[in-house]
Amino acid sequence: MKLIKSKKLSEYKSIKHGFFNKQGGNSKGIYKSLNCGQGSLDKRSTVKKNLNIVLKKIKCKNDKIILLNQIHSSKFYFLEKKNISNKKFTGDAIITDLKNTPIGVLTADCAPILIYDSNKPFISAIHAGWKGAYKDIVKKVIKFMFKKGCTPNTMTAVIGPCISIKNYEVKNDFVKKFIKKDKKNKVFFRKNKNKTYFSLNKFIYNQIKGLNIKRIDIIKKDTFDIKNNFFSSRRSLKKNENDYGRNISIIMIN
After folding, report:
1. 3-164+214-253, which class in CATH?
2. What's the pTM?
3. Which of 121, 152, 212, 250 yields a CA-CA distance of 20 to 30 A from 53?
């Protein structure tokens, strides 16, 4: 099992966090092996076992990770004691100040973002593919945290493993959409042999930096690259597989 940690977040003993790849679980076939995707076609009981492995690995005494039914939106939840019993959260980010309550997101090429404010303390876990990033989910979450009293000086944001620019080929209408939103977005595209490629993590990094947060970490692991052992929806699509496993990223206040 490969648990990747951010050097910047690891400085804080008051939280636990990690970005998991696909090794070290119980799933078989195309889901081999640490598939944490409850929305995948994998056996529910096997996914639950995998989630328990994740909890053990980060030494969490809680038996449940709060996850979302992710929809590539800019919708987020502020998790409080009064709404924690809600069974389903449909959206793409969770913010909380609850202790011993692990929150997580699932990805398979999209970017997971973990944020911690050491002063309040607050945490958030965000799922941002190009749609969520385009809809400003990361900015909306951070601005909400500001409203709750978090400050740029006390916040650390980490962009986890996602598809890299060299493997993220996009079509012309995709490029037009981003440049129509802001001409400066041109810098996130690269041309190579008549093909255009997009840098998702740099785009998100730029959004976070624009909100005056200085402590930003990028985990430079390409999920598409088979040698990194991550699930990748794009790679599964190329192989004509009918589904794919999901990587989990998790954070918790002790």
Report:
1. alpha beta
2. 0.97
3. 121
